[in-house]
Amino acid sequence: MTAAVRVLNPAPDDDFARLRLIRSDNVGPVTYRQLLRRFGSASRALAALPDLAQRGGGTARIAPEAAVAAELAAVARFGARFVFLGDPDYPFLLAQTETAPPALAVKGDLRLLDRPAVAMVGARNASAAAVRFARELATALADAELVVVSGLARGIDAAAHWGALAGGTIGVVAGGIDVVYPPENAELQARIGADGLLVAEAAFGTQPQARHFPRRNRIIAGLCAGTVVVEGALKSGSLITARIAAEAGREVMAVPGSPLDPRAQGCNQLIREGATLIQSAADVIEALRTVSGDVGGRLLSPDLMWEPAPDADVDDATRSAVEALLSPVPVAIDELVRQTNCPSATVAAALLDLELSGRIVRHAGGRVSAS
Q1: The whole model's pTM is what?
Q2: What letter would DSSP give residue 328?
Q3: Going from the N-terminus, what domains does the chain have, and what CATH number goes with each?
Q4: Looking at the DSSP assignment, which residues form a beta bridge with residue 118?
């Protein structure tokens, strides 16, 4: 359960404490927000981690000070900086999502985050016709003062970035902000860092792995009022991004394709399920205005959504009762509240202790499972 409250800007105990908290084991986006709500600052949360993890039956593994200091220095040398959840310059629409990254490394023009944005994603092995359409659509959207957001992948992503580069584009990378992937996009990534904006959640120097791409996709969708899928198979990362956008209440749009092309089946399926059919930039702009009355931007959404602050104390019996209900199959936290007949804040506190001890895993949609 969540409640709309004013953004709680943490005390200025510096970027070091916040980054150290984020880089500590078992501190994910939801846990980070709960810890700041409960303790008021990253420094106090760090001091409490050993006791919280011990309650859950584990040991806290806090990020080493030297590693955090080295990362901050490396990011600065690279010409980038961090923005933290709760800061005024943190991406506003992304902050409304359930799993908003607590920290982002950014390089380039931060003013792009204040402009209306639309995501464009699609197949890496895209057809020549789809690549051309994506590039031209992105150019038209940029000419209409929409920022185009994508993931710097081969195919549709790269075409969208090149098409929008002169007007404004944001590239979200799966690895560290300094890591180029795929290698053939080295020039494009450098151009975006100079003329657009690069965004990364992973630690500096991180090589992208399979698990990083869904995390990147949620940032792409979260930054934008809507997502356009240009070409994508039925089981593709593009459809994952579209699903994340839909779950966040954002507009989902798709470009139709030939039923004979497997790369178009995902888009055609999205349209069958209610996605807006897109044939031009005017269609995208109309779809976004239909949903929000404008095309998005910093003023689109209400106050930041935060998890309820967990109760300070949870007894062992309650914690055990919550853990006993968990299995490898993810279950909604609301269901745990119903079955334990405990207040939601009490269940949240039990889950916090269990997560910090490494005994549970959080999933999208407010679900948890045993680790």
Answers
A1: 0.85
A2: S
A3: 3-103 (no CATH), 108-292 (3.40.50.450), 310-370 (1.10.10.10)
A4: 148, 226
